[in-house]
Amino acid sequence: MPGRTLTIAQARRIALAAQGFADPRPEPWAATMRHVQRVIDRVQVVQIDSVNVVSRSHYLPFLARLGPYDRALVDRAANRSPRRLVESWAHMASYVPPTTWPLLDFRFRRAEDEAWGGVEQVLRDYPGLVDAVLDEIERRGPMTSRETEAALAHDAPRNRDHWGWNWSAVKTSLELLFRAGRVNSAGRTSQFERRYASLASVAPPAIRDQWVDSARRPHEDDAILELVRISAKAHGVGTELCLRDYFRLKSVQVRPAIVRLVETGELEPVEIAGWPKPAWLHAEARLPRRVHAEALLSPFDSLVWQRERTEALYDLRYRIEIYTPLQQRVHGYYVLPFLYGDALVARVDLKADRAAGVLRLNQVTWQRDAPAEARPALLRNLASMADWLGLDDGVVEAVPA
């Protein structure tokens, strides 16, 4: 049965603290790998997206929590050994800590059974190609999909007529191997192409056995329990939907885990005033008396990616309008929520115009109750973002802020 009742304001501060927004920021450009690791420890999942309208999205959660920092720190965390971040399908395409990767083995095992149409066609029309691609990566990787195709053409020319050297078939084979947990990524090229690599070359030495030997990975029930534990800590407080959405789990998987975590005292059932659904509070969640943060949030930031939660906590109905026809967009193309204090006070449509050297402020939509102080704060944050992006001519406003 639910115990204590939290107000929306309390739940909001708990959520912000859990996501790292109550932590002290380093001085601008002074962040170290220790600060980057602190963000990783807080959020646990950093979504990856190829859209580069402002910046590659995985850099923006670190900017939101640390202020201006050297992006090479995140590149080093993901691309160099010992890696602090590795790629997997967690909450969509994501970076996760290397210790989380083996927990997703139950998903790897279902990759081929749940194959999408392109994979089924490759398995049917190009027998042996997936194994040949895997062998190529293990012998010659890391390689991009284009490099893999070129290597196969060199190493197996006699099979050319049989496979047809269809680039998309090689790429599809690599994606199947990646989703099945049989290869991973050693980083991305400047064009954001994944560099596929063997598990042994990516795995940190301390947990290499769990990576290369699937028999050593946790059983599905134990893995789900740990994933819900991670999700609960990253949320601070949340509903079942919150707890399962972080790793895109199913209710049937999450509910037994919640029961076990309540039994061990790691989760406490609570009510949140105004929320119709039950919620759970993590035992280590902080409830600060006050949170004052200022940050422009990526559309793929873990603070806002669960849209029902965002609307319930911040009274902000947020949708990505990238795929909405121009004439139907309300708030703009690439819209970043602006966090001021402990509230989301605006939607900000931005574009990094690299050719012109400016950050274009296309549209700002303010919440009705946004405080007057938020307006100069937004301009400060935009100027800081332009500097971080290396846009020397600053911010150009298409509309008054």
Topology, element by element:
Layout: E1 5-6, H1 8-18, H2 33-43, E2 46-47, H3 60-66, H4 72-79, E3 86-90, E4 92-96, H5 105-109, H6 117-125, H7 129-140, H8 145-155, H9 160-163, H10 167-179, E5 183-188, E6 194-198, H11 199-202, H12 208-212, H13 220-235, E7 237-238, H14 240-245, H15 251-263, E8 267-272, E9 279-282, E10 293-296, H16 307-314, E11 335-341, E12 343-353, E13 358-366, H17 374-388, E14 395-397
Parallel strand pairs: 1-8, 13-14
Antiparallel strand pairs: 2-4, 3-4, 5-6, 7-9, 8-9, 10-11, 11-12, 12-13
Notable characteristics:
401 residues; 17 helices; single chain; globular; four-stranded mixed beta sheet; alpha+beta; 18% strand; 39% helix; five-stranded mixed beta sheet
